[in-house]
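so im writing up the methods section and need the DUF4329 domain-containing protein record in one place, dumping it here so i stop losing it
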Amino acid sequence: MRPLATFVNSEFKRTLGKALVALTIGLSFASAGQAATVAELANEVFVSETAAVTAAANRYNPQSIAQDKEYMGAVYQCEEGHRYSVGAGKVGAGNVTVTLRTPQGCKTVALWHTHGAEHRSHKYFSDIDTRLVEQVGLPFYMADYTGSLRVFEPGDRTMTYSEARRLGLGSSNQYARGSLVTDQAGETLAVATHSHGQQAVALNH
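--- predicted struct ---
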């Protein structure tokens, strides 16, 4: 199997099927004939990684569901606080080709993405998602059509072949459920699924 990660001119490039992600400064490239979307840096500054991720998910998950389009970006730890970037995939494509540029003076601490419209597979981290996490060594957050916000971290458990088949995900042992994201009080967070709901709320289970 071709390795997912390669070093080219001392810059870290990562190829995942049709998705191509760069964790570097000022790098732009394309995959499979598609022009890469350069992820834009949001203006807002947040107090924590979780706050930045929930803000990104609240803003883009409703669009992702309505358009069946994936959004993806990174979370950066900067001197002024945490910030996020975002790039958009194509409608119904089930993937996103994006260039992630780490702002000067900042550090990339996490990745985040949405999973589009309702589908049985969209509540779980895909094999591409989990392989990306193991390659980059960063947590990967996912917002889905139910309003759940989950995270898959390096070393987390993936499904067995039988678990994946029972869920209709095919024959793979690289899918994962991840963990539900909680706030500082330990309450499970939910994110917006419609454009009128823009605030993360705690789910009382």
